[in-house]
């Protein structure tokens, strides 16, 4: 199993915080066991050592907006942000990638809305976003049409292999 560190923010833990049903349901959809199994699957497929470290934080929209503004200078909450550490790339049969992959930050309320708009569950969206975040930590990007085709093709293939069915439809920003 990958060296995986989860931090799931409790949407009710802040004084005076009133959660909506969407926020409550979105956080309830966070299944750390499924996401851990997904990470293990992706690490195996991309030849990444089980000793590789990945942190996943699950935060509300206010916290995600702060992170988004601080790191990207963009207002508003986003779905996922990735912070690579050791600039790892997928390994080879002869040498597995190993080290500190990085940090991924997920925002379940944004994921819930995107999943609903795309016609799939919040958990499917969180799986898609986790995969997307891992690929960003491995240096993949989607700034050009060629990069997007490569990254989204790999993302789709990984998700279909893990889920055993068609991958959820990607959200494009």
UniProtKB/TrEMBL annotation:
<dbReference type="Pfam" id="PF02130">
    <property type="entry name" value="YbeY"/>
</dbReference>
<keyword id="KW-0479">Metal-binding</keyword>
<dbReference type="GO" id="GO:0008270">
    <property type="term" value="F:zinc ion binding"/>
</dbReference>
<protein>
    <recommendedName>
        <fullName>Endoribonuclease YbeY</fullName>
        <ecNumber>3.1.-.-</ecNumber>
    </recommendedName>
</protein>
<keyword id="KW-0540">Nuclease</keyword>
<dbReference type="GO" id="GO:0005737">
    <property type="term" value="C:cytoplasm"/>
</dbReference>
<feature type="binding site">
    <location>
        <position position="142"/>
    </location>
    <ligand>
        <name>Zn(2+)</name>
    </ligand>
</feature>
<comment type="similarity">
    <text>Belongs to the endoribonuclease YbeY family.</text>
</comment>
<comment type="function">
    <text>Single strand-specific metallo-endoribonuclease involved in late-stage 70S ribosome quality control and in maturation of the 3' terminus of the 16S rRNA.</text>
</comment>
<feature type="binding site">
    <location>
        <position position="132"/>
    </location>
    <ligand>
        <name>Zn(2+)</name>
    </ligand>
</feature>
<keyword id="KW-0963">Cytoplasm</keyword>
<dbReference type="GO" id="GO:0004222">
    <property type="term" value="F:metalloendopeptidase activity"/>
</dbReference>
<dbReference type="GO" id="GO:0004521">
    <property type="term" value="F:RNA endonuclease activity"/>
</dbReference>
<keyword id="KW-0378">Hydrolase</keyword>
<keyword id="KW-0255">Endonuclease</keyword>
<keyword id="KW-0690">Ribosome biogenesis</keyword>
<keyword id="KW-0698">rRNA processing</keyword>
<dbReference type="InterPro" id="IPR002036">
    <property type="entry name" value="YbeY"/>
</dbReference>
<feature type="binding site">
    <location>
        <position position="136"/>
    </location>
    <ligand>
        <name>Zn(2+)</name>
    </ligand>
</feature>
<dbReference type="InterPro" id="IPR023091">
    <property type="entry name" value="MetalPrtase_cat_dom_sf_prd"/>
</dbReference>
<keyword id="KW-0862">Zinc</keyword>
<dbReference type="GO" id="GO:0006364">
    <property type="term" value="P:rRNA processing"/>
</dbReference>
């Amino acid at each position: 199993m990958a060296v995986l560190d989860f931090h799931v923010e409790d949407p009710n833990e802040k004084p005076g915080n009133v959660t909506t049903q969407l926020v409550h349901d979105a956080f309830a959809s966070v299944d750390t066991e499924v996401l851990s199994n997904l990470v293990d699957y992706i690490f195996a497929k991309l030849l990444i050592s089980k000793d590789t470290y990945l942190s996943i934080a699950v935060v509300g929209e206010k916290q995600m907006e702060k992170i988004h503004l601080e790191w990207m200078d963009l207002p508003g909450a986003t779905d996922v942000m990735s912070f690579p550490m050791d600039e790892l790339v997928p390994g080879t049969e002869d040498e597995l990638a190993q080290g500190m992959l990085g940090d991924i930050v997920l925002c379940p309320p944004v994921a819930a809305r995107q999943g609903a708009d795309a016609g799939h569950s919040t958990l499917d969206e969180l799986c898609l976003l986790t995969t997307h975040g891992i690929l960003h930590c491995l240096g993949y990007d989607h700034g050009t049409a060629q990069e997007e085709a490569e990254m989204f093709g790999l993302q789709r293939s990984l998700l279909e292999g893990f889920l055993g069915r068609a991958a959820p439809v990607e959200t494009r920003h």
